[in-house]
Amino acid sequence: MKDRLSATFSALSDPTRRAILARLSEGEASVTELHEPFSSDMSLPAITKHLKVLENAGLIQKTKAAQWRTCSLNPEPLKEASDWIEQYSLFWEESLDRLDEYLKDIQKKNKKG
Amino acid sequence: MKDRLSATFSALSDPTRRAILARLSEGEASVTELHEPFSSDMSLPAITKHLKVLENAGLIQKTKAAQWRTCSLNPEPLKEASDWIEQYSLFWEESLDRLDEYLKDIQKKNKKG
DNA sequence: TGGTTAATTAACCAAATGGTAAATTAATGA
DNA sequence: TCATTAATTTACCATTTGGTTAATTAACCA
Predict the structure, then answer these.
(1) 3 state SS of B63
(2) C-beta within 7 A of nucleic chain D, residues 30-69 of B
(3) Three-class SS of residue A113?
(4) Within chain A, what is the greatest distance between any pair of CA atoms?
(5) Domains of chain B by range and CATH?
(6) Tens of pLDDT, residue by residue, chain B (113 residues)
(7) Are the C-beta atoms of A42 and A16 separated by less than 8 Å?
(8) Do A85 and B85 touch (CB under 8 A)?
(9) DSSP character at residue B100
(10) Mutation test of the interface with chain A: which of B79, B87, B90, B107, choosing the one with the most A Cβ atoms within 10 A?
């Protein structure tokens, strides 16, 4: 049994799966919807397999309604991955400036809405 | 040819390789030194292979002196991975508080010297 | 009921992955 | 020179990975 962090990084190591997560970050979607952008060069069963990998890593969740399978993003494993990488952030110099700027950005957005 | 981000996440998907990076975060080390913590259950050639994966992903660099191969951490790909994950940070709620705290921590350390 | 839609499973494939033991190469030094 | 140390390569292995096509299952609806 693969540990959670390994499963997460492994899931993220494929471009198709990263693109799927990007799509889900905008809102939940059905399997067919997720397949659409890749339909010219990838089969639906291939997408099903990718989703299985993402689900096993805990990165997505599926809900079932009739013949529909709706997928949604679960950010928890991403946060764990981010936390792991964070221990190395002291190694890049601009870290302080970037975080400062990013933080201010978020505070602005939060105050607006 | 695998794209850089995929190679990075793929490299990070193995616990041994993450442990190697953790060791290198404390300072550069020879192949034998990196092998030592694993020597009871993993061969030296296996470590060589892992290092090859890390090197191909750009996560480490090797310098050569006589029969010695010294490995050191390269944080750039980690930063790229962190940046990629960062786009999802809005999905976890404590992000703002954590970043704020972290930033203050770093500023304290920098002011000390 | 039978056709349609959505999704999954089964069977297959080539390549990649994490290991091993043995052999080889590179460098040192008695 | 030959033994020792450090590291890599070779050859092998079982398993996993990203795909495919065909078949099957689940659900809807005229």
Answers:
(1) strand
(2) 30-33, 44-45, 48-49, 51-52, 62, 67-69
(3) coil
(4) 52
(5) 4-75 (1.10.10.10), 78-112 (no CATH)
(6) 589 999 999 999 999 999 999 999 999 999 999 999 999 999 999 999 999 999 999 999 999 999 999 999 999 999 999 999 999 998 886 555 555 666 666 666 655 54
(7) yes
(8) yes
(9) H
(10) B79
